[in-house]
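Q: What changes when flavin-adenine dinucleotide is included in the input?
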Amino acid sequence: MTEELHRRYIPDGQDNLYDTHKCRVLRVYKQTEMDKVFLFRFIDQEVGKNWKFKPGQFVEVSLPGIGEVPISICSSAMRIGFFQLCIRKAGRVTTKIHELKPGDIVGIRGPYGNGFPMEKFFGRNLLLVAAGLGMAPLRSVFLYAIDNRWRFGDITIINSAKYENELLFARELEAMRDIAEAENIQIIQTVTREDSPNRLKGRASEHLDKVMIDPKNSTVALCGPPRMYKSMFEKLVEMNYDPRRIFVTLERRMKCGIGKCGHCNLGNSTSWKYACIDGPVFDYYDIISTPGMLE
Ligand SMILES: Cc1cc2nc3c(=O)[nH]c(=O)nc-3n(C[C@H](O)[C@H](O)[C@H](O)COP(=O)(O)OP(=O)(O)OC[C@H]3O[C@@H](n4cnc5c(N)ncnc54)[C@H](O)[C@@H]3O)c2cc1C
Ligand code: FES
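A: The predicted holo structure follows.
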């Protein structure tokens, strides 16, 4: 790996690319039948004190002898020494992670990836659109915006899932509704596959007309399955959202997380990206200029 890559992607002061910190599980709580939220604390408190991340970054979580998986950080970046991960039981490693109890220890590498360029969002309205597990990284952006409320204009979050019992952080968002409204924060929760007395029905893109913020001065962050992005882009551009200010996360299959293994390569010779180090956050122009990004 070149010096330049080292400088860009490996956190300062970290010589070993695979440097792993031990973290203790403090709390586990069930979000849905498939998803659990884990609260972690660094065992070495010096490390914890200096460990910082940006919303949209991810960590590699390892269980010795089992494996390692990339997971987005879903908590507020303003918290020191603690962080949360919302983990869906998908296969071998995540099933073992779901068996963890408070007191157990995991290995954590990172944070990795570029994260959302939050400074570019300052002074503007913010529209966040999450589908399914996409709510995990966007929760971190949302909590950051709430913690730094004075830096943003009006804020709208759309949280969507197939079924009501799959909506991530739905109760938390509901509990915030009164405070949110008093601070010009709009919360929309929608489900696509069932009628629910508590939720709107339909895809997030079908509720964009309910968003109260002015598109002209807004930044948009989308996180969900790539197939949702194409129709969202078309609709947002049609509604006068500035394409330069539309950001998405792409959670391509990753292994190393640091630009070494090549598992997450995207594009061709004109535009070649590593989802782990050039992303996982990309802007609209990266997406349309890099072949295969939305496949
Ligand atoms: C940047 C990034 C952030 C992520 N953030 C989260 C998160 O916040 N919460 C969460 O629950 N999951 C997240 N994932 C997905 C998570 O990494 C995978 O679910 C996990 O690697 C599956 O490992 P496993 O051993 O449990 O499953 P496996 O036994 O390896 O596979 C089981 C199933 O999961 C799918 N899968 C495997 N690896 C990935 C992958 N990297 N991305 C998507 N699907 C995969 C396989 O196609 C298969 O269907 C993220 C992935 C990336 C790349
Ligand atoms: S995950 Fe290894 S190069 Fe991106």
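Observations recorded in class: The chain has a mean pLDDT of 90.
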